[in-house]
Amino acid sequence: MDKNAITIRKATKADAEAIQTIYAPYVRETAVSFEYDVPSVEEMAKRIEEVQKTHLWIVAEEDGKIVGYAYAHAFYGRAAYQWAVETSIYVDRQEKRKGIGGVLHEAMEDALKAQGILNMNACIAYPAQGSDDPHLTLDSVRFHERMGYTKVAHFHQCGKKFGRWYDVIWMEKIIGEHV
Question: Which residues share a beta bridge with 91?
Answer without folding.
Answer: 68
